[in-house]
Amino acid sequence: xxxxxxxxxxxxxxxxxxxxxxxxxxxxxxxxxxxxxxxxxxxxxxxxxxxxxxxxxxxxxxxxxxxxxxxxxxxxxxxxxxxxxxxxxxxxxxxxxxxxxxxxxxxxxxxxxxxxxxxxxxxxxxxxxxxxxxxxxxxxxxxxxxxxxxxxxxxxxxxxxxxxxxxxxxxxxxxxxxxxxxxxxxxxxxxxxxxxxxxxxxxxxxxxxxxxxxxxxxxxxxxxxxxxxxxxxxxxxxxxxxxxxxxxxxxxxxxxxxxx
Length: 260
Prior knowledge:
Layout: E1 6-11, E2 14-19, H1 30-45, E3 51-56, E4 61-63, H2 76-95, E5 101-105, E6 108-110, H3 112-119, E7 122-126, E8 130-132, H4 146-154, H5 156-165, E9 168-170, H6 171-177, E10 182-184, H7 189-201, H8 205-217, H9 225-236, H10 240-250
Parallel strand pairs: 2-3, 3-5, 4-6, 5-7, 6-8, 7-10
Antiparallel strand pairs: 1-2, 8-9
Helix pairs in contact: 1-2, 2-3, 3-4, 4-5, 8-9
């Protein structure tokens, strides 16, 4: 599949999706959100893809926000539809993807950019990264899940401060908040993400899919996460991966998971 605003390449079990609008600091517009959806969907269906890494092109930005020119003249109805469609197409879609998604945050991750990074299963940042939700400085609030995911990751008080001040935090602060897992140099960012991806790929993709469902269940209203965990745990016993994993352990050898 060919894209105008992103790049997608698969190698050694890892699909790297790069937002490629460097002249716009990789800002998210309607077309880019659709292309990202398509690329994530394609990678998730690809049996050769075990981990997805998403990053931004250039050295300045992961995603510096949404393309404000697209919605500056929207009314109430249009604004609501924009948020609903964006969450469905990309942000909630990524969060619930069965393939692990790592955000390689290489520079500014602001507004929709930080919301995309937070939708990923976890984040690794370059030491020059800056993160924030500046929407209130434009007279609006985060609309792609930012008011929900940021408190889940950093706590209510810190999230309230970040949202209300519209300020940015640096990579080390983000790490201390629990917003990112690791901080490294920009030169080593993708290689560190690939190293972590390699560790993930040694394990059962079927079990990882079940774990994602169970963890996400804790953040859904009206869903008992413990019950989801019990159900997913039980399902694992009927998989070929479980048979291979336990047999390999008892035989004291490395497991070769079939992914079934």
